[in-house]
Amino acid sequence: MNTIVCVKQVLDPEIPPAKFKIDPEAKQVIPPPGVPPVISVYDERAVEAACRLKDKHKGKITVISMGSAKASDVIKHAISMGADDGFVLQDPAFENLDSFGTAYVLGKAIQKIGGYDLVLCGRQAADWGAGQVGSILAEILGLPVITLACDVQAVDKKVRVKRMVNDGYEVVEAPMPSLVTVSSEIGLPRLPGGMGLMMARKKQIPVWKAQDIGAETSQLDKANAHTEITALSVPTRKTECEIVTGGTPGEAASNLASKLIKLL
Amino acid sequence: MDSHKGVLVCGEIAEGKLAPITIELLGAGRKLANDLGEELSTLLMGSKTGSLGQEAIAYGADKVYVAEDNLLDHYNSDAYTQVAADLCRKVLPSIMLLGHTDVGCDLAPRLNGRLGGGLAMDCLELSVDPATKLMASTRPVFGGNAHARMVSKSARPQMATVRPKTVPAAERNDSRQGQVIPVEGKIDPSALKVTVVERIKEAVEGVKLEDAEVVVSGGRGIGNAQNWEMVKELARALGAAVGATRPACDEGWAPVTLQVGQSGKVVNPKLYIAVGLSGAMSHIAGCLGSKVIVAINKDKEANIFSVAHFGIVADFKEVLPALTTKFKELLSK
Question: What is the pTM for the complete model shown?
């Protein structure tokens, strides 16, 4: 079975908050120097889900990423995990697109690749975190969509997914091709193997521009954006931390409990 | 664009009642509708809605659209999307609000994809700009490191999912008048592509994380599974839920369903006790809404102290047993 995985390169979410800086004018985050961007957490789990399917059913995994030329790094990461092929979608017209624009571009690339049984996305990106692209993409491609997957199996030409709901989980099925968004509950992604790393090093990652995938510039016009960011700010937190002390740590604990009990 | 008017709340029914988030959305929606001088309506979907329509009116709705169908008994993505999208095409709301719940997180982006509006997810604050009459939605981005304000200039409806427990709930007034309107039309079964094979309710040990008034969370600093018992012990004494950071889940000390943070659950308890965790932004994103945060960490430079209200700088192994004992003593009084 053939799977297409959409991945995004993001600012490392594990950086210390002191390194997080924004440009409020441009409404952009300033990437901290010396911190390489990473594959978005959930997208890496989506690659893992694709690899598990490939382990069982063979087939091909193609990874696409819209972003800068450096997005080839996250595609190479996916290849080192077990993906076969990848494309970077890069064009000035793709910069700062909203979720709709992003889904439109990914949809065009997916249509160009064709021949897929499954499209996998992370449930949301670790940076802007909208959690919309997968579902909009499914609506654009006219695919059945299953969100928040914690297990993805292929059974008799159908995709069978265990998905998280508020009081447990449900198991659902859809005919293929389908689109599934993957959550972290699927489990840890595999570490790249030696073979995979070698594959990734050698692999050329082609770059597709708007015209390569037949994306119409009218669809990418910022004036037609569905949403617009009008302000970006760092929330101020005025918490004064009261350090509770005592003769011993145990005594401090006792003092703390006496303070907190009033809140319960 | 001017043909779109009013605020539509997409309600949720939980165990035969209006879900708490729906009452919060009615509160937020009423305010937006008043600011616009327009109507507030609600859509309720279920197999049997009983008197819930009337209840939604008591909570502020002017009109309640009620869609009853056995196919709507449980949340079904395809069925709910179809009914809600059809209603939106008829009612043409200017604003549509959903909960940032497992239902809203699935439904809102699909409706957005189908209707072509503008959607902001996980919003903490909504307002109407007095000059432009546009809705502005504030949402956390970059794991809560920043807040973005979003506007949809021309796309309609202007949609938002609202994080639970962030906006005040509507007050009930049973003397309020309104209209309950049954939604006509059957669900097209051929459009239901995804079938539910089974539903499993998971029993949670102790209190459920999202509903807990008190949460005790541990991080990598806890060190091993044996020490993790101390975290659970404190939680038990307080009737609290246990939470964990991503590294603690990765270590296998806690199941991934207890992960608090950007890639886990977002909690807003009265009291959040963070033990042996440094406070990486990705974790803090999940607990910043807590009324009071307490940090217990031996590193006084740990970032968690910058968001905490109370702290103890010491090895948690020397703090937790005494804390547990003292709480037990105080609570037994």
Answer: 0.90
User: Strand (E) positions, chain B?
Assistant: 7-10, 13-14, 17-18, 40-46, 63-68, 95-99, 118-123, 125-128, 135-141, 146-151, 158-162, 179-182, 195-201, 214-218, 241-244, 271-275, 292-297, 310-313
C-beta atoms of B326 and A17 within 8 A? no
Chain A residue with Cα closest to B155: A226
Tens place of pLDDT per residue across chain A (264 aa): 999 999 999 998 877 777 889 999 999 999 898 889 999 999 999 999 999 999 999 999 999 999 998 999 999 999 999 999 999 999 999 999 999 999 999 999 999 999 999 999 999 998 888 899 999 999 999 999 999 999 999 998 999 999 988 778 899 999 999 999 999 889 889 999 899 999 999 999 999 999 999 999 888 988 889 999 999 999 877 678 999 999 999 999 999 999 999 888
B209-332 matches B7-191 in CATH topology:
yes
Greatest distance between any 2 Cα atoms in chain A: 72
Domain extent, residue A89, equals 3-224
b/e burial code for range B176-200 (CB count within 10 A of at least 16 → b): eebebeebeeebeeeebbbeeeeee
With a cut of 0.90, is the ipTM above it? yes
Nearest CA in chain B to A185: B256
Which among A129, A146, A261 has the least Cβ separation from residue B194?
A146
- Which amino acid is present at A108? K
| A102 falls within a domain | yes
Percent of chain B surpassing pLDDT 70: 99
d(CA A12, CA B139): 20
Name the phi and psi angles at B36, rounded to 5: -90, -15
Of residues B218, B290, B109, the one with CA closest to residue A124: B109
Q: How far apart are CA A252 and CA B316, in angstroms?
A: 11
Considering only the top CATH level, what class is B7-191? Answer: alpha beta
Distance of CA A2 to the CA centre of its chain: 20
Q: Looking at the domain that runs over B209-332, which CATH code has it been given?
A: 3.40.50.1220
Interface test with A, best of B81, B100, B194 (most A CBs within 10 A): B194
Cross-chain Cβ contact A242/B303 below 8 Å: no
Cα–Cα distance for residue pair A138/B55, rounded to 1 Å: 35
**Inter-chain contact B199–A166, Cβ cutoff 8 Å?**
no
Residue type, B50: G
Do residue B282 and residue A174 have CB atoms under 8 angstroms apart? Answer: no
